Amino acid sequence: MSLLTHLLACLFGMGSWVSINGLWVELPLIVPQIPEAWYLPSYLSVIIQMANIGPLFVTLMHRFRPGTLNERAVIYVIIGLGTVATFLLGFFWKETVVVAGVARSVPLLVLTFFLAAVDCTSSVTFLPFMMRLKSQYLTTYYIGEGVSGLLPSLVALIQGAGIVHCINSTQSVNYTLNIPNGSVTSNLQAQYQPANFSTEVFFFFLSAMMLVCLGAFLLLNYHPSVAREQPNSRYTNRVKQKTKNRELVEQKPMMDPYRPENQKPRSSFGTGSYSWMEVFYIFGILAWVNALSNTVLPSVQSYSCMPYGNNAYHLSASLAALSNPLACFIAMFLPIRSLLFMGALTVIGTGVGVYIMIMAVLSPCPVLVNDTSGGVIIVLAWVLFILTLSYVKVIIGVILRDEGHSALVWCGAVVQLGSLLGAVTMFPLVSVYDYFSSGDPCNTKCS
C-alpha cells in the first residue's frame, strides 16, 4: 500500500466536516459579539438540517437518474464552495442586517447554510468516491473524518476559546442611602478569557484546511502513484499485472471470513452477501449510532460536563474528538465484521450514552458533582461513547464498501438521516421546552 495514498485519503476525509466542526468550537468567541447570543446554536442546528437538501438531491439523482451526476465535478464544487464560504466568514461573521426592525446576523447564517450544505453533501459524495481506491484506504478516510473534529478543537484550545475564569466582584448594598457602613456582598462572576488570536484568523485557518482537502483530492485523481492503487487502473501490461497480483494478495485478508465463497445471492442488495433483514439491521444501527454521536449527545455535552468544571468539559471535548480517529486506527488493524459484535458494541455505547444523558438531565447538580471522581467518570464516559460508536461506523463503512458504489451512497444518506432525526428530537427538548439547565459555572452550589 502507498503511504502517500494513505496520507491523501486522510487529508481528503479531513475536509468532510472540518468547517462545521470548527464553527461549533468557535461559538464561545462568536456568541458574545452577535445579536442572537446563545440562541445561535439552536439556529445553527436548524440550518444544518435544512442543508440536508444537498445529500437528498444527490441520493434522488443516484436512485432515479443513475450516472447523470458527475461525481468528481460535484466534489470539486462543494470543496470550492466550502473554501470560499469559510474565507468569507473571516470578513463578515459579525456583520448584521436589520430584518423586521431587529438586527440579525444574516451573513453568518447564510454562509453557515452553505458550509452545512457542503459538509452534509460530502457524506454522499466523498464515501462513494473512495470506491475508486482499494478498500484499505476507506479506513484511512474515516481517520481523516475524525481528524476534522479533532484538529479544530485543538486549534480552538490553543486559541483559548471557551476558557472561563471566575473572578471576584463586589456589590455595595444600601449605597443609595446615607449609611456610612453600608453592607458589601461579594460573589463570583464568569468571564471568558481573551483569545490568543482572533476569530477571523480561525476562519482563515478553516479555509486553508479546505484548500488542503482540495489539493488532496486533485492528487488522488491525477498522481501516478495513486493511480497504481486503483483496482481498475490502466497502465502497461507489466505494471497492470503486478498491480493485479498485489490486489489478490492484499484484498483477500480484507474479505469477511464468515462469508463463504461462491454462495448464492441472499438478496438483490449489493453483491447479495447479506439478507434483507441483515441489510435493515446494518442500516438501522448506522442511523442509530449517527443520531446519538452526531446530534443527540453532542447537543447536551455542555450540560453533562460543565457542572464538573471547565477542565472536565474541555478534556471530554478534546479526548472525545481524539477517540474518533483512534477508533478508525484500531479498525484499520482489527476489522471485526461480525454483525453480532457490531450489535454488542452498539449496546455498550448506547448504555454509556444513557449515563451521559442522565447526568445532563440532572445538571447543574449531577451525581458526584462535588467529587473529583465525578469529573473523571464523565470524561471516560465520553471517550468510551465516541470510541465504541466510531468503531461501529467504520466497520459498517467497510462492509458497505464491499457491496458496491450504490451501497456507499445509501450509507451517506442514512448517516444524514440519522443525524436529522436526532436533531429534530433534541431541538425542542433543549431549545423550546428547556428540559436542561446549565446553571452558573461560578456560583451554582449543590448540597
TrEMBL record:
UniProt topology in membrane: Multi-pass membrane protein
TM region(s), chain numbering: 38-61, 73-93, 105-129, 141-164, 201-220, 274-292, 312-334, 339-362, 374-400, 407-430
Any coiled-coil regions, as ranges: none
Top-level taxonomic group: Eukaryota
Claim: Ion transport is one of the keywords in the record: no
GO cellular component, one term: plasma membrane
GO MF annotation: an example: riboflavin transmembrane transporter activity
Record's catalysed reaction(s): riboflavin(in) = riboflavin(out)
Cell compartment(s), UniProt: Cell membrane
Keywords: Cell membrane, Membrane, Transmembrane, Transmembrane helix, Transport
This protein's record includes keyword Transmembrane helix: yes
Job description of the protein: Plasma membrane transporter mediating the uptake by cells of the water soluble vitamin B2/riboflavin that plays a key role in biochemical oxidation-reduction reactions of the carbohydrate, lipid, and amino acid metabolism.
PANTHER family: RIBOFLAVIN TRANSPORTER, SOLUTE CARRIER FAMILY 52
Family: Belongs to the riboflavin transporter family.
Name assigned to this protein: Riboflavin transporter
Species of origin: Astatotilapia calliptera (Eastern happy)
